[in-house]
Design a protein that fits this description.
The chain is mainly α. 85% of the residues lie in helices and 0% in strands. The chain folds into 2 domains: 110 residues, no CATH class; 41 residues. The longest helix has 32 residues. The mean pLDDT is 75.
């Protein structure tokens, strides 16, 4: 029983590391942080920005596993208001971040036609892009359907 628990902990931690490494890689390959630093003339703080993104992601993961509301909300009434205010602040920053990430990804997509010309891809680019979109939609539907039936 103890071995199984340790194995599950190791697998969960390893999977989390792999997923977070993939997310951070996408963010840095897209060039979101350097672009923000360049536009705001704060390039000297670029490392600080990257550390804030990593810290925010780790904190969000911890809070999603160990919610503050359930453990502290029963003890004090003002904690609930504080959590709601923090949630609004996080929502604003997350919305700004997702919007900027979408714009950065749209700029990356501008590179697809250039790549197609370089590899001399004459036919099938529309099918490749459509296949990626269908795969994304299918994966999202499977995820949300499974989540819905888990709640019911």
């Amino acid at each position: 029983m103890v071995f199984r628990t340790i194995l599950i902990c190791i697998m969960g931690f390893s999977s989390g590391l792999l997923v977070s490494a993939g997310v951070f890689t996408v963010l840095f390959v897209v060039g979101l942080v350097p672009r923000f630093a360049g536009k705001t003339n704060t390039a000297r703080y670029e490392l600080f920005y990257e550390e804030c993104i990593i810290f925010g992601s780790v904190l969000a993961c911890i809070l999603s596993v160990f919610p503050i509301e359930s453990s502290l909300g029963a003890m004090m009434t003002h904690v609930s208001f504080l959590c709601q205010a923090l949630l609004v602040l996080i929502g604003i920053f997350a919305g700004i971040f997702v919007g900027c990430l979408a714009i950065a990804l749209a700029e990356v997509l501008d590179g697809i036609p250039i790549f197609a010309r370089r590899v001399k891809l004459k036919k099938g680019l529309d099918i490749a892009i459509f296949s990626v979109a269908i795969g994304k939609v299918t994966g999202s539907l499977i995820y949300f359907i499974m989540d819905f039936f888990e709640l019911v």
